[in-house]
Amino acid sequence: MQNEPTSSLVGEEYEVEVGPVAHGGHCIARTAENQVLFVRHTLPGEKIIAKVTDGDTDSRFLRADAVRILEPSKDRVEAPCPYAGPGMCGGCDWQHAKPGAQRRLKGEVIAEQLLRLAGLTPEEAGWDGTVMPAEGDKLPPGEVPAWRTRVQYTVDADGRAGLRKHRSHDVQPIDHCLIAAPGVSELGVEKREWPQLAAVEAITATGSNDRQVILTPKPGGRLPLVELDKPVSVLRVEEHDGGVHRVHGRAFVRERADDRTYRVGSGGFWQVHPQAANTLVRAVMQGLLPRKNDTALDLYCGVGLFAGAIGQRIGEKGAVLGIESGKRAVEDARHNLKDLDRVRIEQGKVDQVLPRTGITECDLIVLDPPRAGAGKQVVKHLSGLGARKIAYVACDPAALARDLAYFAEGGYRVRTLRAFDLFPMTHHVECVAILEPVAKGA
Ligand SMILES: C[S@@+](CC[C@H](N)C(=O)[O-])C[C@H]1O[C@@H](n2cnc3c(N)ncnc32)[C@H](O)[C@@H]1O
Q1: What pLDDT, in 10s, does the model give residues 357-380?
Q2: Domain ranges of the chain
Q3: ipTM of the predicted structure?
Q4: Ligand 1, pocket-test mutation among 270, 300, 320, 334, most atoms within 8 A of CB
Q5: pTM above 0.90, yes or no
Q6: Atom of ligand 1 nearest to the CA of 395
Q7: Which of 50-59, 172-181, 240-249, 257-266 has the lowest mean pLDDT?
Q8: Residue 89 designated active-site
């Protein structure tokens, strides 16, 4: 018998009933041929026309956009941004859902990942199932939260600034991003043309008036004269090494959290939501409850946010070691924490530096890895250090759940989990899990 040749299904339309939300913000549906569809721009329970954007007759699953809503969910609202929707800006993929529904759906994704990858129910994870707004993030109903303090615009062939379309190199030119923080919008970089640039990033700090614009020239491109009618520092990304160099003003912005000021150089990590750093520091400190004389690790420490918070609470005989791979971030962390004698920062990858430190025990650990998580090897090492408490800060619930399963193998269980909506209008969510060793004989 001859096999049917594979043929592309891109552009095919299916009338489907939409099932649950999945990791990544899509919802799951099935075609009449029982192929799984991951559909964007829809909500559970809707009846829609889904148009395939990726996949063929042999694909295990297809990607699709909801192009017509036949029976809308009660959670649906008109997307406030004119650039939202299929084929447009790939950023705010959940703005067609009410804010409360966005948080509920994020909670459903976390619950599903915990159960599937770590075998944990919400009760077993010490989680009440809710996703909380960032601290102090209260908005009148119907208003769009303008939370993004850092926005990188890509420049299209005509020199217009815009944002990338979903899974594409194409640019959606925009003249105002609704979720950009006021300080970013005031810089107005998206309002002018940048024919010499490949990208332009606008940054506004929280807790200082620092503003910054980072210019990435096109290959061989010249640097444009930047005249923005605001006091702003300008940096340029070098073509040959990708390094970021100061053109004028400061090479960093000053952020504030937990009553400390943090210098953040370009390329260094800082939470993008203005209330995120404080929200996370508080959740981590409430979970760890550092004591005088504690020894602690802050892994993937960035410019020293958690190392600073713990370092302030452990007295003169405690000690904190931070580990961070970014050279510039390490310089900033050492500068930021120079008043804390008992805090030390090492540069390098956690999996390489940690074994070299010779540390065999510590009281507390905080880890805040990138999206991929810490992984089995690092978690195994950490599980052997005898920490009283571990705080795991996670921006991807799937990576968190995988690592929690490794921690369980290493004798640690989750005591509490909290989830925060630090990325409103998108499917992204942040979690803080507090782990403790399983009591011997339990
Ligand atoms: C999610 S950020 C957290 C930063 C910091 N904890 C904060 O809240 O500001 C992750 C950090 O890990 C760093 N990083 C990524 N991979 C790493 C690795 N393998 N080892 C050490 N640091 C790494 C990144 O440079 C980034 O600063």
Answers
A1: 999 999 999 999 999 999 999 999
A2: 13-76, 103-137+275-437, 150-204+211-249
A3: 0.99
A4: 300
A5: yes
A6: 1
A7: 240-249
A8: no
